[in-house]
Amino acid sequence: MSAPEHLVFITGKLAHARLEKVAATLPAERFTWSIADAGVKVAALMTEEIIKRRVQMPDGATRIVLPGRCRANPDALAQHFGLPVERGPDEIVDLPAYLGLTGRKVDLSRHDLRIFSEIVDASKMTPDQILAKGLDLARRGADVIDLGGLPDTAFPHLEDSVRALKGAGLKVSVDSFSLDELTRGARAGADYLLSLNEERLDLAFETDAVPILVPMRPDDLPSLDRAIERMEQAGRPYMADPILEPIHFGFVDSIVRYREIRARWPNIEMMMGTGNLTELTEADSLGVTALLVGMCSELAIRNVLIVQVSNHTRRTVEEHDAARRVMYAAREDAALPKGYGRDLLALHDKRPFVQTPDEIAALAAEVRDPNYRIAVAEDGIHVYNRDRHTTGTDAMAFFPELSVESDGAHAFYLGGELTKAETAFRLGKRYVQDEPLDWGCAADRTQEDTTAFKAAGPTKAAHTKHSGPKASAAERAAAAGPEQGASPPETETGRGSEAEPDRLSEPKSGRIVCGRLVTDEGRS
C-alpha cells in the first residue's frame, strides 16, 4: 500500500481553526496534512509575495493547497517551492469533496446531446439579424441554428439566411409546414429538415439534408414507424421525433410514445422538442429542462429542439447545455445526478450555510478593527466588527445599529451587501461578502482573474470601516488595515512531525476598500 499523500494547506489566522477541524476528518490512510498559517488574518488577502516570504514547507510535503479566494499564482508558487500548488475550494466545508472523497471526480466537459435552437420569427428578420442571433445562440451553447417558418408568412430571404449562417461555420436546420420552404432551405445548404411526415418523405431522397421524422398526428405512431422503415430500407440518415405534448394535452402519453419508439427501434437517432413543456408551463424552466434532459439521457435521445419565446425561458440554451453535461457525467458514473456542481441550482444551494452561528461568534471575537464583516447562517444575517456583533433577518433593520448615518458611501455599500445577504438567507443560498450570489446557469457568472486582487471601487470612501466624520480618533487610527499587527506564521502538522513556525517579516499593511485589499503602496 502506498504512503499517504502529505498535503499542506496554506491559510490565515481566522480560518485556521475551521480548517484544522475539517482536515482532521480526512482519512489517515490517504492523507497526512500540515496547516501553514501565513500570519495574516484573512486568507483571501494573502499575496504571492507574502506566501513566498513567510511560509516554509515541512519535510515530506507532496502537494500544496491554497484557499480558493487566494489571489496568488499557483504556477509561480509551484516553481518557488518545487511542489505542485493548486487552488482549493472557496469554502472549507467543501474541502473533502474537492479532494475526491465523495467517490468520484466531476468532469462536466463532455456531453452527447445536440442542441437545435430555433429562431421562431426568422421570416420577419433580415439575414443580418438572423446571423447575429445565430452567433449569439451558438455562443450560449447551441449546436444547430433552426430557422422556423411561420404559417402564411413569406420567407423570401430564406436562402440568403441559410447561406449567411453556413458561411459563419454554423450548422443549420429549417423547420416549416411549407414543403416549398423545406425544399428551398435544403437546396441552399441546410443540414437538417424539420419535420417530415410520411406524406412529405419524398423530399428526404431529393437532398442531402438529414430529415427529422414525425408522425402524421402525435398519437399516430404507426405512421412514424412506416417513415422509419422506409429510411432504414434506404440506408439513409434520419432522426425520429414522436412529438412531446404539453401538460393536460397529452404530455404523459407522449412520454410513453418516446419509450415505445425507443423499444421498437433501439439504435436509431431520436429528437425531443422540449419547448412544449418549457414554454407552455409557467414554472421556472431550469427544473423542467433538467427533468426532460434526464429522460433523454435514459432513452439515448441525443438531439433536442429548444425554443425561447417567453421571458421565463430566456436562459433555455444555457439550461439545456448545463443539464446535458450533468446528465452525461451522472450516466457515465452510473450515479444519480447529485453532486455534479451548482449549475442546475439557481434558487437554492445544497449547503447554503458554510458556518454555524457559534463559528461566526468565534470569528467575531477575534476581530480587532472596525471593518464590518457580514455572514449568513441558519439563524440569520450576522454583522460584526470589533465593537458589535448583531444578528437579524431584515437587511434594513440593521441600519440604526451600524452608526453610518453620516457616511453615505459606507451606508450605500452596507445596504447593498445586507440586501444581498437577506436574499441569500431567505432563499437558502450561499452568501460571500463582496461576491455576487451564484445563480447557477440562470445567470452569467462574472469572469475574473484568480491570480490578482479585485480592483478597488470607484470611490475610496465606499469602504467597510466606521470612518465618517463622527468616527473617533481611535477608529480613524485603526484604518491602517486588518493585517497590521498580525501574529507570526505557524505551521501545524496533522498525523505527522511538527514544524518550526516561520518567523519572517510581517506582511505589508493595507486597508479594505469595499471589502477589497488596497496596499499602502497603492497596489490592489
Task: Give an overview in words.
This protein is of the alpha/beta class and 524 residues long. Helices cover 31% and strands 16% of the residues. The protein is elongated. The C terminus is likely disordered.
Helix content: 25-40%
Widest sheet, order of strands: 10-9-8-7-6-5-12-11
Largest β-sheet summary: 8 strands, parallel
Q: From the helix content, strand content and strand pairing, which structural class follows?
A: alpha/beta
Q: How far is the first residue's CA from the last residue's CA?
A: 47 Å
What is the number of beta strands? 18
- Tell me the Rg in angstroms: 29 Å
Number of discrete helical segments: 15
Determine the oligomeric state from the structure.
single chain
SSE layout:
Layout: E1 5-11, H1 13-23, E2 31-37, H2 48-54, E3 63-66, H3 74-81, E4 85-87, H4 95-98, E5 114-119, H5 127-140, E6 144-148, H6 158-167, E7 171-175, H7 179-187, E8 192-196, E9 210-213, H8 221-234, E10 239-240, H9 251-264, E11 272-273, H10 275-278, H11 285-299, E12 303-307, H12 316-332, H13 357-366, E13 373-377, E14 380-384, E15 389-392, H14 408-427, H15 473-477, E16 490-494, E17 510-513, E18 516-519
Parallel strand pairs: 1-2, 1-3, 3-4, 5-6, 5-12, 6-7, 7-8, 8-9, 9-10, 11-12
Antiparallel strand pairs: 2-16, 13-14, 14-15, 17-18
Helix pairs in contact: 5-6, 11-12
